[in-house]
Automatic annotation (TrEMBL), chains A, B:
Belongs to the isocitrate and isopropylmalate dehydrogenases family. This is D-malate dehydrogenase [decarboxylating]. Pathway: Carbohydrate acid metabolism; tartrate degradation; D-glycerate from L-tartrate: step 1/1; Carbohydrate acid metabolism; tartrate degradation; 2-hydroxy-3-oxosuccinate from L-tartrate: step 1/1; Carbohydrate acid metabolism; tartrate degradation; 2-hydroxy-3-oxosuccinate from meso-tartrate: step 1/1. Its cofactor is Mg(2+); K(+); Mn(2+). It holds the Pfam family Iso_dh. It comes from the Bacteria. Residues 5-348 form the Isopropylmalate dehydrogenase-like domain. One of its GO terms (molecular function) is tartrate dehydrogenase activity. It catalyses: (2R,3S)-tartrate + NAD(+) = 2-hydroxy-3-oxosuccinate + NADH + H(+); (R)-malate + NAD(+) = pyruvate + CO2 + NADH; (2R,3R)-tartrate + NAD(+) = 2-hydroxy-3-oxosuccinate + NADH + H(+); (2R,3R)-tartrate + H(+) = (R)-glycerate + CO2.
Length: 352, 352
């Protein structure tokens, strides 16, 4: 049987509750579609940090490198600064494994209520393709005149040709596979006048190779407004690291699915493992209570199956989510129900 | 009588149609409340650029400097690149006149439909205070290895202590004047790790001086989501140049008022003139047809009156807008009516 090696990193908070349900559904899919998942568990988290002073061992990334994919829960906990937790576990994976694509589907699922008035599932169904390694999230910057009135800080955004071209190419290819064949670029070249005009330039260049794709571009400010006013305009949206971060929270928000939104951090060349994680965080307020919604985690699992080439299994998982939501299956509090994490996971594992 | 010197710059497109209506209402307010507006008209625009190669004369800013305020329509026209039009007229004013506050009220007006389901006017009523001179809109950056595979561009975000402190102070003072006394800071210190942690640091420092204000902060990604899901959470929101730009388009979008949203670019010390302009642009698609909605311009006029100390007159103008909208007065297409620009302007001038 086909075998995929999966590194499982539940991480913090509700990640510890949602990953087991993700695995439950993945396991059901594996049995049904005849492949094998070889799991290795890593308990790296903010607790590891409390014990060892590190989020993961020094050779942590090397350990993960052996796997085909990483299945991640959530990273972060009150009291541990983000520059320790996120930058000690999440961001190093994205960077070191050159997961330069962050993929975040934004779909209004049947049976889920959008905060927007009168929107139907067919009207909200787009994907944000986010650059995931450079841009505004740079490691170049600093502070001068500390502690004085003259104090200032700087941070340099860096856009390379390689970085722009590869994320754009991925987005164009993805748009080619979708029926609407439409790609929108997020820019801000009217205000951010060194980097964003270059982004536009590379987008225009890449567009030449894809005459079948209809393209447009909007400045990020009005694009955010359009997400609210005209979500039906969008099919695939390509964006820099920061703009993609914003759009891929706003997109799920307009789709009423911030609690169920999945994400994939992909190295398309498969030189390194890709990583799959929910968009939500560790949710300290509800952690440990068994009430977290596992759907984002399970849906992220579907994206992982897709990446591993298990297309049928991936479709079965998203179909299962869709039926559960539309047919009034058990749902957690955030969706107006009173089911627990386990119950939802089991229900999905059964129908997958 | 009190006299205020106003520089009027209609600019491009619908700016030429909305400023006269703005002036009509301001004039009515001046007569009713007993002050005088001394107007000087400047026809600087993309047409000026076409004729002279410049958006305004070399001493343009000096000419404007004589006035107490600038009343601007819109800047920009197809065929003229943004770095010519915006950076030749709009941005120089913000920078040279040190208009370091951009103020953008986001209100669901009675009689206006929000794209959000089931929201009432009382639930959407907040103000975005945007830093308007530094941050992500910097003039420091460049390109290397042009035309090769190694090509890259950089742009440096710059946050000074002066820049952060003064916009935050303004925001805290504004929050003090509002009944809810609440201030939210937009950050992204978990991803943008040099500049945004500094922003947070200054915010925490400033908060100490305002114990009456309840504060919170959100990363810009989830903050955008909250604008859609919980607009009622917000009272005053303070943000950097880019984040403020995004939030002040998204805010009006959730309030259904992107076509009527006003903005003020303020130099609080009054060392230089402040500038008042609609959030919308020059709208080439409807320009010249007399159908543009003048409310954003007129509302911007109210912000100008407020700044000039004409508080009663300012309130009269916003009240007039509110009644017109809620009582089914004439409305333009964008609000579902079929009135023209002139008709709406006249209706407001009559009741002010
Ligand atoms: C035109 C553009 C440079 C400007 C900005 O981003 O500041 C506009 O979007 C605004 O918000 O006034
Ligand atoms: C936690 C944070 C650094 C991260 C990001 O901004 O990339 C998160 O918001 C995300 O989108 O995965």
């Amino acid at each position: 049987a086909r075998k995929h090696r999966i590194a499982v990193v539940p991480g913090d908070g509700i990640g510890k509750e949602t990953t087991p349900e993700g695995l439950r559904v993945l396991d059901a899919a594996a049995r049904r579609f005849g492949f094998e998942l070889e799991l290795t568990h890593y308990d790296w988290s903010c607790e590891t940090y409390a014990k060892t002073g590190k989020m993961m061992p020094d050779d942590g990334l090397d350990q993960l490198r052996q796997s085909d994919a990483v299945f991640l829960g959530a990273v972060g906990w009150p009291g541990v600064p983000d520059n320790v937790s996120l930058w000690g576990l999440l961001i190093p994976m994205r960077r070191d494994f050159d997961q330069y694509i962050s993929l975040r589907p934004c779909r209004l699922m049947p049976g889920v209520r959008s905060p927007l008035a009168n929107r139907t599932p067919a009207e909200i169904d787009f994907v944000v393709v986010r650059e995931n390694t450079e841009g505004e999230y740079s490691s170049s910057g600093g502070r001068m005149f500390r502690g004085t009135e003259r104090e200032f800080v700087t941070q340099e955004s860096v856009f390379t040709r390689t970085g722009c071209d590869r994320v754009m190419k991925y987005a164009f290819e993805l748009a080619m596979k979708r029926p609407r064949k439409k790609l929108t670029s997020a820019t801000k070249s009217n205000g951010i006048t060194f980097t964003m005009p270059y982004w536009d330039e590379r987008f225009a260049e890449m567009a030449k190779a894809y005459p079948e794709i209809s393209t447009d571009q909007f400045h990020i400010d009005i694009l955010c407004a359009h997400f609210v006013q005209h979500p039906d305009w969008f099919d695939v949206v390509v964006a820099s690291n920061l703009f993609g971060d914003i759009l891929s929270d706003l997109g799920p928000a307009v789709a009423g699915s911030i609690g169920i939104a999945p994400s994939a951090n992909i190295n398309p060349e498969r030189k390194h493992p890709s990583m799959f994680e929910p968009v939500h965080g560790s949710a300290p307020d509800i952690a440990g209570k068994g009430v977290a919604n596992p759907i984002a985690q399970i849906w992220s699992g579907a994206l992982m199956l897709e990446h591993l080439g298990e297309h049928e299994a991936a479709a079965a998982v998203t179909d299962a989510i869709e039926s559960l939501l539309s047919e009034g299956g058990p749902r957690t509090r955030d969706l107006g129900g009173n089911a627990g994490t386990l119950e939802v996971g089991k229900a999905l594992a059964e129908v997958v």
